[in-house]
Specification:
227 residues, four-stranded antiparallel β-sheet, 4 strands, 13% strand, globular
């Protein structure tokens, strides 16, 4: 698959087949993603790959916190505390598209809550990746991390896999660290990612969010000869 096609066709997937993803395939995925650039080649990414019983255990533990009404306690603030335009409208449209694909009305809070709970189970994906970073690293390394994270999703697309990047899997990082053990005890949990083969016919996988056109986010300062 051409890289331009992978960028345009990649989409967040929320329904997966039960087909296992082999360790060889996961290794190829990460072996490709590792070529992401980073400032002074620091390569700040660290990844925990879980499936099977381990995946079930950690996802159950995260979901249990939500079900019990425990407050989210992420290692960092992902979203702004107050929303302004155009971000507020984009966020609203995203939610409406998702629930619209499932024909769930806005007032059906029980159905919406059931869908939200699936976040903590990685939407049934057979594999979850948890992404960690050392506490000493600063904003530049987080910028680098985004390039690696995107590489993971594009490489997955090229391998016929589907992904869903998930901030929700980092809402209870202490629970994840406790399940994964000492190796991550002093690391910041950046986010998670569901990985698997897509259930292409699932309604939840049919909707797509819109992207702003180039001239909405670009100002051109070109020489007339280049225009």
């Amino acid at each position: 698959m051409h890289v331009l096609e992978a960028i345009k066709t990649r989409a967040s997937t929320r329904a997966f087949l039960t087909t296992p993803v082999t360790q060889d395939t996961l290794h190829e995925l990460l072996n490709t993603a590792r070529f992401a650039p980073s400032g002074t080649n620091t390569q700040p990414w660290q990844v925990a790959v879980v499936n099977g019983a381990s995946k079930q255990r950690v996802c159950n533990a995260i979901a249990a916190e939500h079900i019990a009404g425990e407050a989210q306690r992420p290692d960092y603030q992902y979203y702004p505390k107050e929303w302004s335009e155009p971000y507020k409208s984009r966020r609203f449209a995203c939610g409406m598209a998702l629930y619209g694909a499932l024909a769930i009305e806005r007032q059906d809070k029980a159905a919406r809550q059931a869908i939200w709970l699936q976040n903590y189970h990685a939407f049934g994906a057979p594999v979850v990746l948890f992404f960690f970073i050392d506490k000493q690293m600063e904003k530049g390394s987080w910028f680098d991390y985004g390039m690696f994270y995107q590489n993971v999703m594009l490489a997955a697309t090229g391998l016929g896999l589907a992904t869903c990047p998930q901030a929700a899997l980092a809402e209870y990082p202490d629970v994840v660290r406790a399940e994964l053990g000492e190796a991550y005890a002093d690391k910041i949990l950046v986010c998670g990612m569901a990985v698997g083969y897509p259930e292409s016919t699932a309604s939840i996988n049919q909707y797509r969010t819109e992207r702003a056109p180039v001239n909405d986010f670009t100002h051109w300062f070109l020489d007339k000869e280049s225009a």
